[in-house]
Structures are given as structure tokens and as C-alpha cells.
Amino acid sequence: MDRVVGIGVLIGAIAAIVAGAAIWLLFTDPVTVATAVETGDVSPLVRQLADVIFNAISGLLAYL
């Protein structure tokens, strides 16, 4: 049962990180989000999301 709870917490944390990055991207680069929604092409959006998450993790690791 502890393993199930641990996996649930991990999935929740990953979902929260992706949601936070999506909101951050919406505020910082709305043109990319609007273009992705209008054209249906999500690859620029995914690329920007990955860049935001990477920068956040690298900043956190630099802080530590």
C-alpha cells in the first residue's frame, strides 16, 4: 500500500510541475500558446514547456 501512495504522490508532483509550467508559459509567452491553440500544432508548446521546466530545475540545482 505504501508503494501505491508513493507512486500517486510522484504522479501528482509531476502533474503539478507541468501545470505550473503551463501557467508560467501562458503568462510569459502567450504568443506561443495562442499559436499552438490556433494551429493545433503543439510541438512549439511542448518545446517551450520543456525549456521552462529545464530552466527551473537547473536554477534549483544551481541554488543547492
Q: What topology emerges from the helices and strands here?
A:
Layout: H1 2-28, H2 30-39, H3 43-63
Task: Give a written overview of the molecule.
The protein has 64 residues and is mostly helical. The protein has one domain (16-63). It is 91% helix and 0% strand. It is built from 3 helices and no strands. It has helices at residues 2-28, 30-39, 43-63. The longest helix is centred in the N-terminal third of the chain and has 27 residues, at 2-28. The chain starts with a helix and ends with a helix.
**Helical proportion, percent range:** over 70%
Summarize the biggest pleated sheet.
Answer: none
User: In angstroms, what is the radius of gyration?
Assistant: 15 Å
Structural class: mainly alpha
**How many domains, in number, for the residues?**
1
Q: Let me know the average pLDDT.
A: 86
Global shape: flat
H/E topology pattern: HHH
Work out the number of β strands.
Answer: 0
Characteristics:
91% helix; 64 residues
In short:
The protein has 64 residues and is mainly α.
